[in-house]
Specification:
The chain is α+β, with helices and mostly antiparallel strands. It folds into three domains: about 120 residues, no CATH class; about 60 residues; about 120 residues, Histidine kinase-like ATPase, C-terminal domain (Heat Shock Protein 90). The chain has a five-stranded mixed sheet with strand order 1-2-3-5-4, covered by helices on one side. Strand 2 and strand 3 form a beta hairpin. The radius of gyration is 42 Å and the shape is rod-shaped. The chain starts with 12 loop residues before the first helix and ends in a 7-residue tail after the last strand.
Length: about 375
């Protein structure tokens, strides 16, 4: 890749202007010294005066971007005094790029520049068709090139704007597709999952009423199923509210540290052997940390019940200054796991993402006796 003065990034607009000013002034002075007769209205004037005017014309180009019309007029006027083709070409090029859509301005400069040169040639008695053609080319060429360059810039800008519009439209289309897909998922969840869970709740309620007088254990188990089903329906409605645009779900209470003991107790009623050890005050932690603790414990206990039925589970929660540590470990199963239980494989992935967002991490892997889940979170995560 080119570097230094040969790289495109080196030539900023100010550096380009400086280079053009130096080139125009140098060529103007040099032309006055090489061909003193090239002066138009200053023909026969002292050489230092002609050279000074030619150099000063080049210096005017420094302001060509900010005042293209004024600089163009001054350069044409100075061109009547002495022959400065370089400065005239640059000034007319700038006029062409700036006023490419204003035909009156372009016609004005074309007539003035051409008329000045041709009139000077005619008045000096040096009329030559070739000189006249060269003079017209000196006026028409820079204006035409400047207009073409300006038009190209307009087309490039329009193409970039159109591309940006297409990208925005594509992004809106993707967002719309996502919203429609989320709505479809919400409808499917409502039609299938909510219906089946609701049926389970109703069946458990009927079983509890029917078995209350005959077998209290069955009635208690049915009541547990009914409560868990209702909790599942509440959380499902909340998820449906998130997935469905324009619909607000009923704000069910979010689980926190106060629910940990209740979660453990409900799992014990299903037959799990769970020991719970809590050190510190988890209820004083930020809400997002409490929710992460609850969801992690819920997922770990669910996995232990599915993959290690009958195994004992040890839950240790330590709230310290340096952070929160939750460890859930279970032993080997005492019964054969039920293969009919669904397992999507997304629970631990979601827990890892939640822990990472809170600035912590989670480690879940088999150990010597069974399986171990270890969660570490900061006491005050960056999201708070």
């Amino acid at each position: 890749m080119a570097s230094g003065i040969f790289s495109a990034s080196f030539w900023s607009p100010r550096r380009v202007d400086a280079a053009l000013v130096i080139a125009a002034a140098t060529l103007g002075v040099g032309n006055s010294w090489i061909k003193p007769s090239n002066g138009l209205l200053l023909t026969g004037a002292p050489l230092p005066l002609t050279a000074t005017v030619s150099g000063a014309v080049g210096l005017l180009l420094w302001w060509r971007r900010r005042h293209p019309f004024a600089v163009g007029c001054l350069v044409v006027l100075c061109h009547l005094l002495c022959f400065t083709p370089t400065a005239l070409a640059i000034a007319l090029y700038t006029v062409g790029t700036t006023y490419r859509r204003q035909a009156r301005v372009l016609a004005f400069f074309l007539i003035v520049a051409s008329g000045a040169d041709i009139g000077t040639l005619w008045a000096g008695g040096a009329w030559d068709p070739r000189e006249a053609g060269y003079t017209l080319a000196l006026a028409i060429g820079p204006l035409a090139v400047g207009g073409a360059v300006g038009l190209r810039r307009d087309l490039t800008t329009a193409a970039q704007a159109q591309l940006a519009t297409l990208e925005r439209e594509q992004e809106l289309l993707v967002q719309r597709t996502r919203v429609e897909e989320r709505s479809r998922i919400a409808r499917d969840m409502h039609d299938v999952v909510a219906h089946r869970v609701g049926h389970i709740v109703l069946t458990a309620g009927a079983l509890r009423v029917g078995a209350a007088a005959h077998d209290p254990k069955i009635a208690d188990a049915a009541e547990l199923i009914r409560r868990e089903g209702r909790h599942a329906l509440e959380e499902l409605r909340e998820i449906l509210g998130i997935l469905t645009p324009g619909r607000r779900a009923p704000r069910a209470p979010r689980p926190d540290a106060d629910e940990l003991s209740g979660l453990v107790e409900r799992c014990r009623r299903t037959g799990q052997l769970i020991s719970l050890c809590v050190e510190g005050f988890p209820e004083a932690l930020p809400t997002v940390v409490q929710q992460a603790l609850y969801r992690t414990l819920q997922e770990a206990l669910t996995n232990a019940a599915k993959h290690a039925p009958g195994a004992s589970v040890d839950v240790d929660l330590h709230c310290r200054v340096d952070g929160v540590h939750l460890t859930v470990s279970n032993g080997p199963p005492t019964r054969t796991p039920d293969d009919d239980l669904p397992s999507g494989g997304h629970g631990l992935v979601g827990l890892r993402e939640r822990a990472a967002l809170l600035g912590g991490h989670i480690h879940a892997a088999p150990n010597a006796d069974g399986f171990r889940v270890a969660l570490r979170l900061p006491s005050h995560p960056p999201t708070e």
